[in-house]
Amino acid sequence: MDNKIETSAAPVMDAASESPDAGRKIKMPEILTVSPSPHIVSPDTTATVMFDVILALLPAFLWGVYVFGIRALAVMAVSVAACVGFEAAAQFLLHRPVTIRDLSAVVTGLLLAMNLPVSVPLWMPVVGGFFAIVVVKQLFGGIGCNFVNPALAARVFLFSWASEMTAFSADGEKVTSLAPVLAEGDIVASATPLASLKTGEIPPETIIDMVLGYKAGCIGEVSALLLLAGGIFLLVQRVITWHIPVAYIGTVALMTFLFPKSAGMPVEFMLYELLAGGLMLGAFFMATDYATSPVTPVGRLIFGMGCGLLTVLIRYFGAYPEGVSFSILVMNLLVWYIDKATMPRRFGGKSDGKK
């Protein structure tokens, strides 16, 4: 909040009368406005930034609707409605201003939906929305105060129901039922490309299928091309910087090329690892969350490399074939230390115990 300080120009004029320029007339404002840094006026608000994120996510999400069927829309609608509703309710009960118009809860709901299989029961996005908004976000102070990404934390929490979270619809098997819980046999389950890569095998999908999004997986992670396009849009709009996505994707590319699980096919194995799972979604849309990522360029590079390294280690040695969600959450917990180590020294501050 700006603080207005009223001051008089008379003392300044008295001091000036004793100087060689005493005859020069000096005009001083009667009211000075002092505000905290940075002293930059920008038209960007939380709502405009979140709207750009929504625009960047929509193509990949709509492709998921095309591939998996109209039930994907139902999952998204329930997820977004739950997140917005829980945000308003929590802020009301905690006697805080209701800020659902900033669209941050909408983005959380959309990201949560895109990280779910299309076949999940419709009560699961509600439970996930409660955990993301109330537990992870509002109980820690609201937007900007959460120390981990709410949508990712909710997704990991929903693995308490592992069978529902790993029932992936096969490519081309559209799910049109809007029933709250799908009955057995309503979907044709399919292994994701990551399941094949986990065993060191090249998936049956072609590279073109992987790029376009003709594969099994979560609703919003299947089209690497549209996710990449959305990420470039955010870069052009200066909503995010290049440091985290490039460091994240580059680290995964380097590690999987140098240490492929498929002998004799390092390039092909690397490409499948980059295009499979939620790597593009995580690198551009969740690892770059303002509240849970470092503020310095060097810190962002370290953060991205850490996410990439952990993703590869979890994919190679963990029980679960995907490592994006877990790697980002682990690195979220290290952001304070990364910022502390990479923050430039204040002018006039101490260094090595000396002024």
Describe the structure.
- By secondary structure, the chain is mainly α.
- Strands 1-2 form a two-stranded antiparallel ribbon.
- The protein is globular and about 70 Å long.
- The two termini are 33 Å apart.
- The N terminus is likely disordered.
List the helices and strands and how they pair.
Layout: E1 3-6, H1 10-17, E2 31-34, H2 46-68, H3 71-93, H4 104-114, H5 123-137, H6 150-157, H7 162-165, H8 193-198, H9 207-212, H10 224-236, H11 243-258, H12 266-275, H13 279-286, H14 297-317, H15 324-332, H16 335-342
Antiparallel strand pairs: 1-2
Helix pairs in contact: 2-4, 2-10, 3-4, 3-5, 4-5, 4-6, 5-6, 6-15, 10-13, 11-12, 11-13, 11-14, 14-15, 14-16
Main pleated-sheet profile? 2 strands, antiparallel
Strand pairing plus helix content: what structural class? mainly alpha
- DSSP strand (E) fraction? under 5%
**Mean pLDDT, all residues:** 84
The topology string of helices and strands comes to: EHEHHHHHHHHHHHHHHH
Oligomer: single chain
Morphology call = globular
Helix content: 40-55%
Number of helices: 16
Number of strands: 2
* Strand adjacency order, main sheet: 1-2
Estimated radius of gyration: 25 Å
Q: Between the first and last Cα atoms, what is the distance in angstroms?
A: 33 Å
The poorly predicted ranges are: 1-22, 180-189
